[in-house]
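Run YqzL-like protein through structure prediction, thanks.
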Amino acid sequence: MIDLTWKLFSQTGNIETYLLMKELENTYKEIPESEEEQDAMEFDSNL
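Sure, done. The structure for YqzL-like protein is below.
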C-alpha cells in the first residue's frame, strides 16, 4: 500500500498523498506483522 501511495505522489506531487503515505508508514511501525516480529521487539527491549 505504501508503494502505491509513493508512486501516486511521485507522479502527481499531491501533498495529501504524501501525508497519507507517512501516516500509513507510522501505522505499520506501530502494528507488529507477526509473532516473530513481536519476539524481536521484546528481545530488543531487553537489551
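The mean pLDDT is 77.
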